[in-house]
Amino acid sequence: MKFAPSNQPYDTGNFAVFTKNLEKQFGSFTAVKHVNLAVEQGEIFGFLGANGAGKTTAIRMLCGLLLPTSGSGTVAGFDVWRESEKIKQNIGYMSQKFSLYNDLTLAENVEFYGGVYGLNRKTIKEKRHELLDSLGLTASAGRLTRDMPLGYKQRLALGCALLHNPKIIFLDEPTAGVDPEARRNFWELIHELADKGKTVFVTTHYMDEAEYCNRVSIMYQGEIVALGSPQSLRHEYKKASMADVFIKLVDK
Amino acid sequence: MQQILYLIQKEFRQVFRDPSMLFIIFFAPIVQTTVLGLAITVDVKNIQTVITDYDNSTASLAIRRKFKNNPYFSVSGYVESPVQLREKMDGWGAQLAIVIPSHFERDLVRSQQPAIQVIVDGVDGNSAGIALGYALGVLSDYTIDVAMANPALAFSARRIPLVAPLARMWYNLDLESKNYMVPGLIAVLLTMVSLFLSSMGLVREKELGTLEQLMVTPIKTWQLILGKVSPFLILGFLGLAMMLLVAFVVFQLKVAGSLVLLFGLSALFLLTTLGLGILVSTLAHTQQQAMFISWFFMVFLVFMSGFLFPIKNMPHWVQLLTYLNPMRYFIIILREIFLKGSSLKFLLNEIFALVLFASTILTLSSLRFQKRVS
Amino acid sequence: MSRIFPIIIKEFIHISRDFRTLIVVIVLPVVMLFLYGFAINMEIQNINMLVLDHSNSPESSSLIRKFSGSDFYTVLPFDGTEAEIETIFANREADMALILAGDFAAEHARSPETTVQILIDASDPNAAQAIRNYTNTVIQFYNMAHGAKPSFEITPTVWYNPSLKSAYFFVPGLAALILIMISALLTSVAIVREKETGTMEQILVSPVRPVEIIIGKVVPYIILAFLDLIIILNIAYFVFDVPFVGSLGLLIFCSLLFIFTSLSLGLFISTKARAQQVAMMMALVATLLPTVMLSGFMFPLSSLPAPLRVLSHLVPARYYLVIIRGIMLKGNHFLQLLPQVLALAGMAIVLMVVSARKFKTNLEG
After folding, report:
1. In this structure, are residues C161 and B129 in contact, taking their beta carbons and an 8 Å threshold?
2. Sheet harboring C96-100: ordered strands across?
3. Which of A91, B108, B214, C161 is the most buried (most CB within 10 A)?
4. What residues of B are in contact with residue A115 (Cβ under 8 Å)?
5. How far is CA C87 from CA B96, B183, B339, C81, C125, in A?
6. What domain count does chain A have?
7. Where are the domains of chain B?
8. DSSP string, A38-92
9. What is the C-alpha to C-alpha distance for residues B347 and B38, in angstroms, rounded to an integer?
10. Do at least 3 CB pairs under 8 Å connect A with B?
11. Do B6 and A60 touch (CB under 8 A)?
12. How far is CA B124 from CA B120, C39, C164, C167, C354, in A?
C-alpha cells in the first residue's frame, strides 16, 4: 500500500490517530480491511465513503466501542485493544443520531452529559451557560429537545460531546439529513475547533464536504482506496471535483 | 459517584415527563392490586345448584332448605327428570346437583340407609372437589340434625363412641384466599414492573442511540448499571408502598411482621429482577423484542413461584427447577412476613438464596453488558 | 383483491425474519401447554402432620395408624409443647398438627363424642381446606371401622371429568389465552409499529384501500393463530388425553369467530395507541389480564365479587371458554352455544365498526 505510513518513525504518540492493518470481521464478512492511518494533531481528517463502506465500524473501533479483529492502533497515544477507557477520557464522539434525549430540555441534556463526564457542579453550570450562549439558545434552555430544529440539535450534541474538553473529536456523519445552510455553519464550527488545536476525525458521504478537510481518505468496501489532501487527489486523478474522484475510484 | 447521581436524575426527569410511564408505574399497580386481588380467589362461592327431589317429603324439604340457606350454594331450581338434569348440566346451568331418591324419608325412618346422589360438574376439577366437599358437609350436618330431632334415628350415637375433629386454622382464621393471594400478587406485580421497565428502558436507549453516546464517555460499566438500576429500585419501592396501602385499605390486610425487613428484602429481590432486565436488554435489539423476552421470563417466573399452583404438587423435576426461580423465595418471604410476622431468623434460607441470585445475576449482566456495541 | 397479497407476503416476511417473535408465537404456546398440562395439580399430595400424642394408649395409636396408613400423610411424632408448634409452622416444616389429649383413651371409653384437636397452617387457604377435608374423612373412616353407621349414604358422582384432572380444565383454556395473545396483542403491536416507523404512511399513499391494508395485515396472524389452535388441539388430544366429545367442525367455526373478535379488539387498540410500548401495555391490560383473571380460565366466575362478574361479560374469552370446554368435554351442540356465539359476533361487529371509523379519520386527519 503506497499510502501506508510505513516509512514514518514508529512513534505513534505524535499522531492523534494511528492504525496499522486494523481489521474487523463480522462472521465471514469483513467490514474493515487493513486500514492504515496516521492522523496528525490539529488536523481535520475526512473519512469518505458511501453508506456501508465501513466508516462507522472503523470509527467505532477507534472510539473503543468495538474491538478490532486484528491489527493495531492508538488514539491519543492509547492502545485500542487495551486502553479503550483511557481513550474515552480523551475523545469526544458524536454519532449519526445526535444522541440527545428528546424528552429532556436543552439545559438538562447539557447538565446530564456534563455529569456523566465527571465535571463538577460549578463547571457544569458555567459550561451550560457558555454553550447555550454561544449557540444563541439561552432563551430556549427550558424547551424540550424534541421541539428543536435538527440543525440546533446537531450543534448542541456537538457541544455536549465537547464538555470535557477532549483533544480529539470523532464525528460520525454529523451532517446527514441537515439542510445545506446548517451544514455550512457546522463546518465553520469544525474549523474553529481545529484552530483551537483539536483534531477532528469526521466521516461523511457528502463528497463536496471533502473540500473542508485537510486530508481525506476514501473508503470503498472496507478498504481505503485513496488518501491525501483534496487538492492532491483531484490532481492525481485529474478530476474537477471530489465527487468525480470518488466515482472514478469506485468504477475501477 | 457523582456520575451515578446524574444518571438517576436524568432517569427521573424522563419518567416524570411521560404520562404513560407515570401511569404504568403508579396507577397500574393500584388498579391491578385491587382488581386482581378481588379476582384471584380460589374460594368457591355461589355454587349453582339444582335439586331433583323424587321424595317430596318433610325430610327432603329439610335438605332443600339446608342448601337454600347455605351461602356457598345458590339453588337455581328443581328439575324433574334425569334428562332435564343432563340438559341443565350440559348447558352450564348448574355445577352441582343433589338427587334425593323416592322413599327417602321412609327408608330413613326404617334405618335402611337410603342414598343421596351428589353430582358435580368436574370440568374445573379443583372447584368441583371443593364444591363436593361443601355439599358433603351440608349433608352430614343434616345427619346430625336428624339425630338431634329424633334420637331413635340417630346412628346409635350412645352406644358407639365417636372421635370428632375440632380444627383450628392458624394465620388465616377465615380461610380467606386474599390473605394468601395479595402478598403473592404484590410479588408478581413488582417483578413485572421492574423487569419490563429496566429491560425496555435500556433497549430504548439502544434504539435511540443515546446508549452509544454514554458508552464513549469515561463512565465505568458498574456506574452505568447502577445509575440505570437505582431509579427503578426507588420507583419499585414507591410501587410497593402503594400496593401495601391498597392491601390495607381495600383488603384490610396488615403486615404482621417488620416493614423494614419487608422493604429491605424487597430491595434484594428488586436487584435480582433489575439485573435480569439488564440481561434481557443485552439480548434484544428492539423494545418489542425486549418486551417479548421479558414476557417469556415472566411466564416461567410466575408459573414456578408457587403463586397460584402449589410447588409441592408439581412433578419432581419441575420442583427442582423452581429452586432456580428467585420469585419462589420472594413469595415465601412476603407471605411469611405478611401473615405470620416471621422475623429474620426464620427466613435465612430464602435470604441466602436471594443474595446468591442477586449477586450472580448482577455479575452476569455486568459481564454481558459491555461498554461496547455488538 | 390481488393487491392484498403483497401486504400479506410482506407481513409474513416480517414475522419469519424476527426470530424472537417467532419463538413467542410457536414455542411459548407449546411450552405453556406442557407446563400447565403436566405441572399443575391443585390436589394436595403430601401432608406433613405433627402428632402430639399425650395419651400414648392403644386407642390413640390406632387412630394415628389410620393416618400413617394413608398415602397422603407423613406422620411426624412430636414430644414438644404446643408453643413449639408455632416455630415449626413458621419454618414450614409441618402443615398441620394432631393433638391427642392425655385423657383421650378414658374419654373415648366413657363419652359418646371425644374431641381431638387439629391445627392447620392456613396461610394457603386452599390447601388448608383440602387438608381439613382429608382429615375429616380419615377420622370418619376410623369411626366407621369402630361401628358407626350414618343414617343415609351419599354417593358422589363426577361428570365430564371423573378423575378431576387439571389438564381437562387448563388445556382448552390455554387455547383461548394463546389465541387472544396472538390475534389481539401481536396485531395491535404490529400495526402500531408501522405507524411508529412511518411505513404506514408509505402504504397509505399507495392505491391500496384501507380495508385491504387491514385485511393484509391481519390475515397472517389469523393463519398463525389457527396453526397454534391445531397444535394445541393435537397436544390436548394425544398427549393429555383430553376427550373430544363434540363436533370438530363446530369448534373450528367458533374458534374462527373468536379469532375474528380478538383481531377486532387488536385493531381497536391499534387505533388508540401511538407508541409500541403503549400498545403493548394497553393490549396487556385489555386482553391478557382479563383473559386470565375474568374469564373463568382459572378462577371460577361465580366466585368473583358482583361488579367484576358484571365486568366479565365484556371479556370475549369468557364466551369462548364455555364454547371450547363445552364442545370438547360436554359435547355441546350449536343451539346450546348460541348465546355465546351471538355475544362474540356482536362484540366483533361493534369493535370492527368503531375501529374502521377511527382508522379512516386517522388517515384523513
Report:
1. no
2. B162-170, C113-121, C96-100, C47-53, C73-77
3. A91
4. 2-3, 5-7, 9
5. 41, 21, 14, 11, 19
6. 1
7. 2-41+176-368, 47-149
8. EEETT-EEEEEE-TTSSHHHHHHHHTTSS--SEEEEEETTEETTT-HHHHHHHEE
9. 28
10. yes
11. no
12. 10, 16, 7, 9, 36
Q: Provide the CATH topology of domain B47-149.
A: abc type-2 transporter like fold (3.40.1710)
Q: Which chains touch A (3 or more CB pairs under 8 A)?
A: B
Inter-chain touch B217–A116, beta carbons under 8 Å:
yes
Q: How many CB pairs under 8 A join A and B?
A: 87
**A219: in domain:** yes
3-state percent breakdown (helix, strand, coil) of chain A, nearest 5 = 40, 25, 35
Residue A139: which domain range?
12-251
Who among A91, A95, A115 is closest to B213 (CB)?
A95
Each residue's pLDDT, cut to its tens digit, for chain C (365 residues) gives: 566 777 777 777 777 776 666 776 777 778 878 877 776 666 667 889 999 998 888 888 888 998 988 888 899 998 888 788 888 887 778 889 999 888 888 888 877 778 888 888 887 777 787 888 888 888 878 887 776 666 677 777 888 887 777 788 888 888 888 888 878 877 777 777 777 666 666 666 666 666 777 777 778 888 888 888 898 899 889 988 888 989 999 999 999 999 999 988 888 888 777 666 667 777 777 777 788 888 888 888 887 888 888 989 999 999 999 999 999 988 888 988 999 999 999 999 999 888 877 766 555 43
Q: By CA distance, what is A169's nearest residue in B?
A: B216
CA nearest neighbour of B67 among B87, B92, B47 = B47
Beta-bridge partner residues of A216:
A46, A228
Q: Which fold has domain C47-145?
A: D-Maltodextrin-Binding Protein; domain 2 (3.40.190)
Q: Which residues face A79 on adjacent strands? A: A74
Look at residue A188 and tell me if it is in a domain. yes
Q: How high is the ipTM of this complex?
A: 0.80
Contact B164 C114 (CB under 8 A): yes
Residue A211 maps to which CATH number?
3.40.50.300
Residue whose C-alpha cell is 417488620: B258
- Domain assignment present for residue A137? The answer is yes
E strands of chain C, at which residues? 47-53, 73-77, 96-100, 113-121, 153-159
